[in-house]
Design brief:
Strand order of the largest sheet: 2-1-3-4
Order of helices and strands: EHEEEHHHEHHHHHE
Distance between the termini: 33 Å
Largest sheet: 4 strands, mixed
Number of strands: 6
CATH architecture of the largest domain: Up-down Bundle
Radius of gyration: 17 Å
CATH topology of the largest domain: Glutathione S-transferase Yfyf (Class Pi), Chain A, domain 2
Length: 224
């Protein structure tokens, strides 16, 4: 069975992508959680970053690479329909490489609620594009997921955005908000969230990020 190396569930948006994909598609794996700040990341990942999938002699150290590795071995990672599959790959790639303002201003921190000091034009643009993409996929392919009636890799790539939206409350159109709530309601997403709230360790860099751009109004996480 493959080992999936991830970091803190409270913070690690990149780790969530392959984790939720494998859980939703019932692809078996052993979870290996290594907290941020650990000196051992390079022992399993050539970049010293997560996620990293170790499957026998194969080592796959990027979330998009992991999705494609899984697609070669398991059905359902991408939509079966060619048009939906092309759209899903483009949307996932856009998420993988873009939305810089969203990542900077709204770093993932599942266990808190933050009132942003301001919605910057760059964040507003990113949020508008996410809403546009989500509504396009839902309307074009019929929902309830972005590329049709089944959860696929494109939903996995946007799953961290649902947690970010829950934390920061940046504006999304009603249909996009409903999709975010649908993601948050998935059983594996609830499992991830519960585990994130139970974590007692804190990473100084990630904690500083949330205070740079807003005020914490709730901290729902367990304390040591």
């Amino acid at each position: 069975m493959a080992d999936l190396y991830i970091a803190n569930k409270n913070y690690s948006s990149w780790s969530l992508r392959p984790w939720i994909l494998m859980r939703m598609l019932d692809i078996p794996f052993d979870e290996r959680l290594v907290p941020f700040g650990s000196t051992s990341f390079l022992s399993f990942s050539p970049t010293g970053k997560v996620p990293c999938l170790v499957d026998g002699a194969s080592r796959v150290w990027d979330s998009m690479g992991i999705a494609e590795y899984l697609a070669e071995r398991h059905a359902g990672v991408w939509p079966a329909d060619g048009e939906a599959r092309a759209w899903a790959r483009c949307a996932a790639a856009e998420m993988h490489s873009g939305f810089v303002a969203l990542r900077d201003v709204c770093s993932m921190n599942c266990g808190v609620r933050v009132r942003l000091a301001t919605i910057t034009p760059a964040l507003q643009k990113d949020a508008a594009r996410i809403g546009e993409l989500w509504m396009e996929g839902l309307q074009r392919f019929g929902g309830p997921f972005l590329a049709g009636d089944r959860f696929t890799a494109v939903d996995a790539f946007f799953a961290p955005v649902a947690f970010r939206w829950q934390t920061y409350g940046f504006p999304l159109p009603p249909e996009a908000q409903a999709y975010a709530e649908r993601l948050l309601g998935l059983a594996p997403m609830r499992d991830w969230y519960a585990a994130a709230l139970a974590e007692t360790w804190r990473d100084a860099e990630h904690e500083a990020d949330i205070h740079r751009h807003g005020t914490v109004t709730q901290d729902l996480r367990a304390t040591a």
